[in-house]
Amino acid sequence: MANESRPCPCDIGDRFNYGGRGQEVQVEHIKAYVCKPSASTDKAVIVIHDIFGWQLPNTRYMADMLTTNGYTAICPDFFVGQEAWKPSNDWGTFNEWLKTRNASKIDKEVDVILKYLRDQCGAKKIGVIGFCWGGAAVQHLMLKNPHLKTGVSLYGVIRHFDDKSNLLHPTFFIFGEKDDIIPLEQVTLLEQKLKQNCKVDYEVKIYPGQTHGFVHRKREDINPQDKPFIEEGRKDMINWLNKYL
Fold it and tell me: Could you list the residue ranges that cross the membrane (predicted)?
């Protein structure tokens, strides 16, 4: 667990020992991990990584899970060559590191990836999911990008959400009850704003007893009490995408 001086306890959880079924490609100025299902599809999902970057095995595992459910999945390097955070880094430098990796300044890269998915993968219906840093990026995109159909924000840091809550697309928000960096009062406030201002479908769900990163950073085989909630979060994510793509 993180100590109190750390601004972001994102090192909770496990790094999976997982290689990936997809391949790395170069899309203009961006490297990306792409995985395609065996049958052709016009549905695709952009996967936005957390602070540990696009090469984290956990995130590729989630991308491959989308592919087994019939989606083309792509996880681009939204840090665009800048170094991902390492658990061994000094957390005292985290805020300085974060300044050059703004989750709300990824629009140029998203446009490049959307073009690639349409032109190279035949995608017509495109959604987005994101974890932690990527969850905040999903919130940004759901407010701004007209070309995406839906989004799932998994424990996206709400404080980057400002006061904007007029979503363009159906959005599913996943939070853990015991998340040290996203207090439940922030989640409650988000729900209130959405209820007042949002004109599209949305859902905010809190998973009992879960800490930050639980859907992609916890191994269900060594956390038996968490396993039902990890599986439920993943199933809910897939069901939401199935509904709107």
Answer: none
The residues near 105 (Cβ < 8 Å, ≥ 6 apart) are: none
| Choice among 102-116, 154-168, 223-237 with the minimum mean pLDDT | 154-168
Strands 202-207 and 171-176 turn out to be parallel
Asked if pLDDT for residue 165 goes beyond 50, the answer is: yes
Structure tokens at 83: 């170094």
Instruction: Quote the CA–CA distance of 157 and 79 in Å, as a whole number.
Output: 17
Positions annotated as catalytic residues are: 132, 179, 212
H/E element holding 173? strand 171-176
Tokens for 4, please give them.
Answer: 């109190």
Taking the C-alpha atoms of residue 128 and residue 143, their distance in angstroms, rounded to an integer, is 13
Q: What is the pLDDT of residues 37-53, one digit of tens each?
A: 999 999 999 999 999 99
Q: pTM, whole model, 2 decimals?
A: 0.94
Lowest mean pLDDT among 22-31, 102-111, 152-161, 184-193: 152-161
DSSP label at residue 181: S
| CA–CA dist 100, 76 (Å, integer) | 17
SS (H, E, C) 102-114: CCCCCHHHHHHHH
C-beta of residue 112 within 8 angstroms of C-beta of residue 135:
no
The pLDDT of residue 24 is 98
Domains and CATH numbers, the chain: 33-244 (3.40.50.1820)
Q: Is 70 left (phi over 0), alpha (psi -120 to 50) or beta?
A: left
* Residue 150: pLDDT over 60: yes
